[in-house]
Give the backbone structure.
Amino acid sequence: MTITDVTIPYAAYKEADDLNKLVLEKTQVIEEAAFEFCHNLTSVVFPKSLESIGAAAFHSCTDLSKISFLPAGVVIGNNAFNNCQNITEVNLGDHVKLGEAVFYDCRKLTKIELPDDLKVISKYTFASCLELADIEIPDSVAEIGEGAFSRCMMLNSIQLPGNLIKLGAYAFDGCISLEQITIPTTLHTIESGTFRDCSALVNLTIPGGIETVQRGAFSGCTSLEKIVFPPSLQYVEPEAIFNCPNLKQVAIPQTAKMFVDSFPIRTQIQYI
C-alpha cells in the first residue's frame, strides 16, 4: 500500500489488518497511533520528507520486521515502535531525536546504528531488546535515561560515552550477560539499581569522578568477586552492593561514608 498524504492523522489506520507492506511518499507527519496494532504489517518505507513520528504510531505492529532508513532530523515520539517484536535492525539518520520507550520490547532487535550527534537516550528506549548483544553509543550522548537498556539479556559489554554526565536509575538492570563496563570520569553518581542483577560481572573498577553509589546500584550481581572504588568516592548508600554472595574484595577510600549494610554482611570480605 502506498500513501501520499502529507499528514497521516491520529489512529488513521489503527488495527488495519489488511495492511501488509507500506510505502510512504511525501509524508511529513505521522500522528499518534496512526498504525497502532496493525499486526500484519511487515515492512515500512519512509520518505526523506518525514519530520515526525507520533507516540505509539507503530505500537504493537508485531509482524513488522523491516523499516527503511529513518531520515535525518526525524523526531520519534514515545513508544513509537514499542512491542514491534520482529524488528531486527534499525538505522537512524543524523539529528534524530528519540522519545521514551521507542524500541521497548523489540525482542529480536540485534543491530542499531545511532547517529553521531545524538544527545539523549531517553527512558526505556531499548528496554527488553532481548537479543541486542552489542551497541556503540556515540560520544555525543550526555544522558542515558532510566531503564534505557534494562533487560537487554544478550548485551555482553558496554562502553559508556566519554561525555556522559547522567546515567539513569536501572539503566542496565537485568543485563545478565554483561561482563564488561567502561564508565567515564565525567559521571559522578551511580544511581539506584543501575547495574542490578548484572549477574555476569566478576571484577569491576569504578573510575575517578564517582562520588556517590546509590541504593541497589549493584544488588544481585551474584558473580561479583572484586570491586575497586576511586579516591573520589564520598558516599555509599545502604544496600548499594546487596545480594552479592561471591564478593571477596572491596577497595574503598577510608574517607568514604558507608553504612553497616552498604555491603553484604560477611566476615570474609577483605576491605583494602
